[in-house]
């Protein structure tokens, strides 16, 4: 009985590891796609963006079709009730107004 349960546990664990490794590249591609979409959602009117990395954090500059700076977007996170909530926040080019907030990840 113990041997059967041990074999079932090992096979199940191996299957989970295999599926995770198979799905991980797709998960990363989808996460990057969601990030790109969120940049344009929080910066209305932006058609292109440029990424700046400072102190390990990415800041996205959004530009309209004529190359004029529309604003900035960045990610932030904070505690929720059951876990962390990650959001994309957009601000105008003068850093005076919030132009949008998009939830990237939440386990609420």
From TrEMBL:
Ranges that cross the membrane: 6-23
Annotated keywords: Membrane, Transmembrane, Transmembrane helix
Listed name of the protein: FMN-binding domain-containing protein
